[in-house]
Amino acid sequence: MVVGNGIAGLTACDSLRSAGFDGELTVVGAERHHPYSRPALSKALLHSVQGSSEDGLRAHELPEPSHDATELLGVSAAGLDVDARLVRLDGGGELPYDGLVIASGSRAKRLAAGPQQDGAGGPHQDGSPRELTLRTLEDAILLKERVASRPSVIVIGGGPLGMEVASGCLAAGCEVTLVSDVGPLSRQLGEHLSDLFTSAAIGRGLRVVGGGKARLAHHGSGTRVVLVDGTELEADLVVTAVGDEPNVGWLAGSSLLTGGSLRVDSRGRLRPDIVAAGDVASFPTRRGVQRVPLWTSAIDQAKVAAVGLLQGDTAPEFDFQPYFWTEGFGLSLKSVGFTPVAGAPDYCEPGGSADSVLLRWDNPDGSGTAAAINYRIPVPKLRKLADGGPAALRPAAPARV
Ligand SMILES: Cc1cc2nc3c(=O)[nH]c(=O)nc-3n(C[C@H](O)[C@H](O)[C@H](O)COP(=O)(O)OP(=O)(O)OC[C@H]3O[C@@H](n4cnc5c(N)ncnc54)[C@H](O)[C@@H]3O)c2cc1C
Q1: In the structure, which protein residues have their CB atom closer than 6 angstroms to any atom of ligand 1?
Q2: Cα dist from 62 to 59, 106, 291, 334, 373, whole Å
Q3: CATH number of the domain at 111-242, out of 3.40.50.300, 3.60.15.10, 3.30.1490.20, 3.50.50.60?
Q4: Ligand 1 test: best mutation among 104, 326, 333, most atoms within 8 Å of CB?
Q5: What is the Cα–Cα distance from 313 to 222, expressed in whole angstroms?
Q6: What are the CB-based long-range contacts (under 8 Å, 24+) for 227-231?
């Protein structure tokens, strides 16, 4: 059985089948949809103009699953009994399993859930939410609808998601303020790339405000954002992108959690009969045990975990190298290797246009990180650059006899 119908759940099902599992497979998924591309929600979908770009509006769609599992969609797992091998379902009923893949992902953290929010998490008088987040297809559709009337927008959170939302709102014609307690993207990518993206964003009209951590406060029909340094901001719409938290609530009491996290071994296992993959799981990397809530990380983990479930100690272990991409403000970035990176890159190859560039950093731990900005390069080649440096990109000399 697989709990969670996102990309990790889908990949686990496909990988179980391709590793030879031909038994009964059941997927329990809280969302009513087949798996879709979450990354597209803040990119093509948000940027597409309503009623025109069909491509953008359908960019989140993935091919229909072909793993032939019984899909229970719109159904949540509410509990797990590891001794009886039973998953309890929300609303009653339980399902037995022989092997279990936990792929319940994560959800958006909400600012209003924190302390001292003056009860600002409640809806406006007209019932609309004061704080929008972007995690699900429904969130994306709501955000797109709200942005269509070109409200003023405050985006809180300077990570990739906050920057993509800000870029999408700006492209829709909104006046956008980004609130970030550190340089946008610096926590994820380091100062060099942060400066590059921030300049491009400001050049396109984004207002960037520091001033420390933000909190929300009630203010008539709008929402007020109050920063630690006393700055107060107001806008018609507030979107927060302040991180994600793993969906582990249903595992309370299962004995699988260590300090609230789901820590798997190098084959994705929690026990011989239970594996976990994707945003929900912390797994061993060369930078320690951590969650790496990225699309390809979820895919890579799910492939390993599915085989780990079937083959145990003889299954291959993780050999994980992060890959990540983001778009916004006219820039498109692909990055391979661990981030954030410190300092300026030690290799820089300009591309065909002013903002097209290929970069590489040597990390203190001996690994490399490569980034391509508006630079057309296949990901396997970018991996080569990260691993082997610029020499790895040169064609091999012809053999001499
Ligand atoms: C807007 C957005 C943009 C992103 N852009 C990028 C990007 O550009 N590049 C990148 O690398 N990553 C990006 N990410 C991150 C990436 O999408 C995630 O890392 C990836 O989707 C994780 O997949 P997952 O299957 O582990 O979890 P999820 O996608 O969260 O799927 C888990 C599923 O399990 C369901 N579920 C939860 N609890 C239960 C339960 N108790 N019972 C049953 N079902 C349950 C959830 O409803 C969900 O459908 C983005 C994320 C978002 C939100």
Answers
A1: 3-9, 28-31, 38-39, 41-42, 76-77, 103-106, 134-135, 161, 247, 250, 278-279, 293-296, 298, 324-326
A2: 8, 20, 24, 21, 26
A3: 3.50.50.60
A4: 104
A5: 56
A6: 227/179
Query: Which of 165, 295, 325 to probe ligand 1 with, by most ligand atoms within 8 A of CB?
Result: 295
The pair of structure tokens assigned to 8 is 């990790």
Tell me: the pLDDT tens digits for 243-274? 999 999 999 999 999 999 999 999 999 999 99
CATH topology of domain 2-108+245-314: FAD/NAD(P)-binding domain (3.50.50)
* Per-domain boundaries in the chain: 2-108+245-314, 111-242, 330-393
The tens digit of pLDDT for each residue in 272-312 reads 999 999 999 999 998 899 999 999 999 999 999 999 999 99
Strand partners, 207: 177
Instruction: Evaluate whether 2-108+245-314 and 111-242 have a shared fold.
Output: yes
